[in-house]
Design goal:
Length: 479
């Protein structure tokens, strides 16, 4: 299992590093420059608003499905058509519910028009994620990896034509970006559907009420977890937009920093995609998982620390390089959000482990506590520090969640932590901070400084075995 995780993770990372950074830093950031922070802020606020009710789309079915298909592969052919039909019904309910909520929230006619297309896009994404849960469940990780980047690859092609292809004399409009998402998601869905259809029998669109109620009842704990996590992940920008007079502009500044955080988060999420079915299968087979947990944590933590410190030390230069309309607040937001990335990365290991083990009650209590903390901190910090207040609230919330998940995992699985291991982590963090300071202050060219920092930090991670290269090679060769 460790070999399967390592080899598939390598393939997944290569694909995503080739495509997603260019999409985030090339396409998405350029669109912010073209339409302006305020217009993009409206889109970003609506986008996050559409996320708040994503639970209606899923009801926890995807995580439930991945875990159960990984442990019982024959269920794919048996349940696929009925679950697919249920997904389509849930999309209709979600679109209607979100539009009504947007109307009650007080969005303008123009905003509701954008929200309608965004909710449809979320429906397409929901179906894609369900199809991916089946591919991951039967451990077709190569196909799942291709699907994971297909929509972004298509967005790069379509938006590149619209941005630089001289196909129109009109300035770029945010609606074009949304419609490009619709086309990209639609093509990706068809490809994923074809691959899953080949592993199942056939697709017959028919709602089975008894089956649907039974599945929803079993997946409700997953649904509650997703709902609570969505609220403490996505409520920040919605609160910003409503609490401040220049809310859209503040959300735009937040989005400038958040795009870099999202680029890192996309990579970290790949670990969870691979680990959930692998953990589920290992736990059912009563195999030892401490080795896989240790390897995945070291890889994730060392990468997250290097990226976060890089963004903290070179944040001003990176943000000014990429954006034309920039406030000093965006730079501070950038640094804070990238330290959130370290906490999120840890959650993708230990939160996924607890999900695979079926500890949904614990995770739901923790997520509910996180919602309470996050909303409370936002109410206090946003009036004082505007968008920066939301970032600080997120950092505090994510730090608390990640620490508690580590402690709970230790108690559940009997993991042991040594003083030498703690010293290794501390030495790594302090060493990376020192390297970043020296590279930033003693080399004039910031680009050269940044790449030197990445090189030296990576070598340092290898030298103190934070990145266990020899162990990875041994597993791939001998397992």
């Amino acid at each position: 299992m460790q070999k399967k995780f390592i080899t598939n993770l390598f393939f997944l990372l290569v694909l995503n590093f080739l495509i997603k950074p260019f999409y985030i830093l090339g396409i998405d950031a350029e669109i912010i420059n073209r339409v302006g922070a305020e217009n993009y802020g409206l889109y970003f606020s609506l986008f996050n608003f559409s996320f708040l009710f994503n639970i209606v789309l899923d009801l926890g079915i995807n995580n439930f499905n991945t875990k159960n298909i990984a442990q019982n592969e024959h269920l794919l052919a048996k349940y696929f058509s009925r679950l697919f039909s249920l997904k389509l019904f849930l999309i209709l309910v979600y679109v209607l519910f979100t539009l009504v909520a947007g109307f009650v929230w007080g969005y303008s006619d123009y905003a509701l028009k954008l929200l309608l297309v965004l909710t449809f896009n979320q429906g397409l994404v929901a179906v894609i994620m369900y199809l991916r849960s089946n591919l991951g469940g039967v451990q077709l990780f190569i196909k799942d990896s291709v699907i994971s980047v297909s929509d972004r690859f298509l967005m790069i092609v379509i938006c590149s034509v619209l941005l630089w292809g001289n196909v129109t004399n009109k300035p770029f409009e945010i609606e074009w970006f949304i419609y490009a998402q619709t086309l990209s998601y639609g093509i990706t869905l068809l490809l994923a559907l074809y691959w899953v259809w080949r592993k199942s029998d056939f697709i017959k669109i028919k709602i089975n009420k008894l089956f649907s109620f039974a599945i929803i009842k079993q997946s409700l704990p997953y649904a509650l977890l997703i709902l609570l996590m969505t609220f403490y992940y996505r409520s920040d920008t919605v609160m910003l937009e409503k609490m401040l007079e220049d809310g859209n502009k503040q959300v735009g500044y937040y989005a400038q920093a958040y795009r870099f955080f999202e680029a890192g988060n996309m990579v970290a999420y790949l670990f969870a995609v691979l680990l959930l079915p692998i953990f589920s299968k290992m736990i059912k087979a009563k195999q030892r998982i401490d080795g896989l947990v240790g390897i995945s944590f070291k890889i994730m933590f060392s990468g997250a620390i290097i990226v976060s410190v890089l963004c903290f030390q070179f944040g001003d230069e990176i943000m000014h390089w990429r954006y034309t309309e920039l406030s000093t607040q965006s730079v501070h937001l950038f640094s804070v959000l990238m330290f959130c990335f370290v906490c999120i990365s840890t959650t993708y290991i230990f939160g996924t482990l607890l999900t695979a083990n079926g500890d949904l009650r614990t995770l739901n209590y923790l997520a509910g506590f996180a919602v309470f903390i996050n909303i409370g901190l936002n109410l206090v910090f946003i009036p004082k520090w505007q968008a920066l207040g939301s970032a600080v609230a997120s950092l505090i919330t994510q730090l608390i969640v990640s620490i508690i998940q580590i402690v709970v995992s230790k108690n559940k699985f009997g993991f042991t932590y040594s003083l030498s291991g703690a010293f290794q982590l501390l030495s790594f963090v302090m060493g990376v901070l020192l390297i970043s300071y020296l590279a930033h202050h003693y080399i004039l060219n910031w680009v050269s400084s940044m790449f030197l920092f990445l090189l030296v930090s990576s070598v340092y991670a290898l030298s103190i075995r934070m990145f266990p290269l020899k162990q990875l090679i041994h597993i791939v060769k001998n397992e």
